[in-house]
């Protein structure tokens, strides 16, 4: 007898004992009386003990039946509790939602939204995994990921968010010392703060009147951290080419100045990705909706 069959027969046995009747148990379980009787017989045969004493007028438990009934009751109660718990997870936003986010974006754009999200959903908890590597969401047991750029083909479900504008910026001190570039062609005369020494890292892309423009830049400061490059820009060391959200505060307070706005490329694509759309728990659903709303208005 399979485990599933045994569990089903145990639940039937428990209902028979509680009802003190095969007929009433059959009605409660939406089964035929014959099917109920067969389930009890199958269970007794598997256990090699008699669980019930049957007569035309009375149904009573044997000593073995009394001991077994306690276990059966416990199984049924735990199954009901598990189903109720899963129903709550599905229907009410609660529990832990794990989100994988690139470090800087998570720090500057996602973390500040958490107080409002958790205020709206008091039973929800959030774990932010800040990581610039593209991780396997399923293997790492992540509920949601945020990805930049064009997505590779995968089984993940994707929801697009408004793209991230890109900006070229420099400090007033740098511009005073070296002048203000007016077009991509002027960048050959400037210190450009790039993410590495390879040609790919030093190639910056612009767009003007639907024409794509590539510029191979040069500079004395190279770093694979945009946060470090921003400090270099603030120290008058060169031009910074990054997504705008990373320097929003500095642009607002005047510590950095936006340049060549007519030449900026298209915004960087931004996506929410998650493993499966079926049986989505309520907590994940409201987090996705919340982030979509926040980025649509922000």
TrEMBL record:
Record's superkingdom?
Answer: Bacteria
- Which keywords accompany this UniProt record? DNA-binding, Transcription, Transcription regulation
Mind telling me which InterPro entries this protein's record contains? Answer: LysR-type_TF_proteobact-type (IPR058163), LysR_HTH_N (IPR000847), LysR_subst-bd (IPR005119), WH-like_DNA-bd_sf (IPR036388), WH_DNA-bd_sf (IPR036390)
* Name under which the protein is recorded: LysR family transcriptional regulator for bpeEF and oprC
Segments forming domain HTH lysR-type? 5-62
Per the UniProt entry, what species is this protein from, by scientific name? Answer: Rheinheimera soli
Q: Which family does it belong to?
A: Belongs to the LysR transcriptional regulatory family.
Tell whether Transcription regulation is among the UniProt keywords: yes
């Amino acid at each position: 007898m399979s485990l599933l069959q045994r569990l089903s027969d145990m639940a039937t046995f428990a209902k028979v004992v509680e009802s003190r009747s095969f007929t009433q148990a059959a009605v409660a379980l939406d089964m035929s009386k014959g099917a109920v009787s067969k389930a009890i017989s199958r269970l007794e045969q598997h256990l090699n003990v008699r669980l019930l004493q049957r007569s035309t007028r009375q149904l009573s438990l044997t000593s073995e039946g009394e001991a077994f009934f306690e276990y059966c009751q416990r199984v049924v109660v735990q199954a009901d509790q598990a189903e109720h718990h899963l129903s709550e997870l599905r229907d009410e936003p609660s529990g832990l939602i794990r989100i994988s986010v690139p470090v800087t974006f998570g720090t500057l754009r996602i973390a500040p939204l958490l107080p409002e999200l958790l205020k709206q959903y008091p039973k929800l908890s959030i774990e932010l995994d800040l990581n610039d590597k593209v991780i396997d969401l399923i293997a790492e047991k992540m509920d949601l990921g945020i990805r930049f750029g064009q997505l590779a083909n995968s089984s993940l479900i994707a929801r697009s968010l408004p793209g991230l504008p890109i900006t070229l910026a420099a400090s007033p001190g740098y511009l005073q010392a070296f002048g203000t570039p007016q077009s991509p062609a002027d960048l050959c005369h400037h210190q450009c703060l790039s993410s590495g020494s390879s040609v790919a890292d030093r190639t910056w892309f612009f767009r003007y009147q639907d024409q794509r423009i590539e510029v191979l830049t040069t500079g004395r400061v190279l770093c694979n951290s945009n946060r470090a490059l921003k400090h270099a820009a603030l120290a008058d060391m060169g031009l910074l080419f990054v997504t705008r959200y990373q320097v929003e505060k500095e642009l607002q307070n005047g510590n950095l100045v936006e340049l060549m706005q007519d030449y900026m490329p298209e915004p960087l694509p931004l996506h929410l990705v998650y493993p499966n759309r079926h049986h989505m728990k309520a907590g994940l659903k409201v987090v996705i909706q919340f982030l979509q709303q926040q980025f649509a208005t922000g």
